[in-house]
């Protein structure tokens, strides 16, 4: 029986950073299914640099967005036609992208069976994501596996990390931060990202200060704490740092990084990252850094739906206790959370490289 040949695949995930990071398991699945698969992604400008850093991506196409001029949209269509893609996988379906794939003449177009945009796709997978019964990255993997089945390719066995950095990277990043911030390499390093990026419900700065101080006092040896920040969040991180230092907690603010990829590489130095359901939390998950996530209790944003894609043993999550206060993060018991984190915080270990095979 002849073996399936490699395919030219285009994957679309053209929304926020966290959503894109949760597509990396699907990208790994497609890339590792066949040595000759060529995986391209269509992403917004904001995530393009991270897409170029993804080991499972061969080519990055930048989506100009819904508001781009007609000439720019035509240029994108021409780019897709020139790509001669065998298949299009749309992880989040929109009418513009569905219509674009159809006009580009891509023969196999697979997407979730949701909303009217599905009419542009000739392979549709029923997932009912609105029920939030599975993690987002699992829904993405299900679509990738369905595409491979359509192409007659084997489905690889995957394990975290989905972003396997060179083995020397973590050590280099720790040396860099130790030099920049005077961190004690003999202690555990806890990173905290208190910003929300304007989208995720998160703890307040006061709650983060109480949480970190409460964790630290429960550890056998106090940790080194590093506060990270995104664009426009540095002042808030500095204020939180001052609050923690006043409480006697060894805390620094991570110096500005050159770009988003440099920032992501810095997260590999962490022994733990605490954040709301934001892009940095999901970057850390891809790196298999232990994560503690704070989520609202509403069904569309639960810890299950937006679970990080690190190992089960590297993941902890908290939400408000009652659905009627789904987005009131002040109802999370900070002292109980601090005790749970201090008891759970795994000892630092080197992240393994992903194993591959077929099933």
Description:
With 359 residues, this protein is α/β, with parallel strands linked by helices. The protein contains 12 helices and 12 strands. It has helices at 17-21, 24-32, 45-53, 70-83, 95-103, 136-151, 169-181, 205-218, 234-246, 260-267, 279-286, 334-344, and strands spanning 8-12, 38-44, 59-63, 87-90, 108-112, 123-125, 189-193, 224-228, 251-253, 272-276, 291-294, 315-318. The strands form 2 sheets. The protein has a 6-stranded parallel β-sheet with strand order 3-2-1-4-5-6, with helices on both faces. The protein has a 6-stranded parallel β-sheet with strand order 9-8-7-10-11-12, sandwiched between helices. Helix 2 (24-32) packs parallel to helix 6. The protein is elongated and about 60 Å long. The protein starts with 7 loop residues before the first strand and ends in a 15-residue tail after the last helix.
């Amino acid at each position: 029986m002849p073996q399936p040949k490699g395919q030219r695949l285009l994957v679309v995930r053209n929304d926020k950073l966290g959503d894109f990071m949760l597509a990396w398991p699907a990208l790994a699945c497609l890339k590792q299914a066949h040595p000759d698969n060529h995986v391209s992604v269509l992403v917004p400008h904001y995530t393009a640099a991270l897409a170029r850093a993804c080991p499972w991506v061969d080519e990055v196409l930048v989506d100009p967005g819904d508001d781009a001029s007609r000439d720019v949209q035509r240029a994108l269509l021409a780019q897709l036609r020139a790509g001669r893609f065998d298949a299009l996988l749309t992880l989040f379906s929109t009418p513009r992208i569905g219509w674009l794939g159809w006009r580009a003449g891509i023969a196999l177009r697979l997407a979730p069976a949701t909303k009217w945009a599905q009419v542009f796709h000739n392979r549709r997978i029923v997932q009912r994501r609105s029920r939030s019964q599975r993690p987002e990255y699992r829904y993405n993997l299900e679509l990738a596996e369905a595409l491979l089945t359509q192409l007659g390719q084997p489905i690889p066995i995957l394990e975290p990390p989905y972003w396997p950095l060179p083995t020397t990277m973590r050590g280099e990043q720790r040396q860099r931060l130790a030099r920049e911030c005077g961190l004690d390499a003999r202690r555990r390093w806890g990173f905290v990202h208190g910003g929300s990026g304007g989208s995720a419900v998160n703890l307040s700065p006061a709650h983060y200060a109480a949480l970190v101080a409460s964790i630290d006092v429960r550890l056998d040896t106090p940790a080194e704490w590093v506060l990270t920040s995104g664009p426009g969040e540095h002042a808030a991180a500095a204020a939180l740092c001052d609050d923690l230092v006043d409480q006697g907690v060894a805390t620094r603010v991570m110096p500005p990084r050159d770009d988003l990829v440099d920032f992501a590489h810095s997260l590999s130095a962490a022994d733990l990252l605490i954040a709301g359901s934001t892009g940095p939390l999901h970057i850390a998950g891809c790196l298999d850094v232990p994560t503690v996530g704070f989520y609202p209790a509403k069904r569309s944003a639960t810890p299950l739906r937006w679970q990080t894609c690190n190992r089960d043993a590297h993941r902890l999550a908290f939400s408000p206790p009652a659905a009627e206060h789904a987005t009131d993060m002040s109802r999370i018991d900070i002292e109980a959370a601090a005790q749970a984190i201090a008891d759970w915080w795994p000892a630092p270990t080197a992240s393994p490289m992903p194993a591959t095979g077929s099933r």
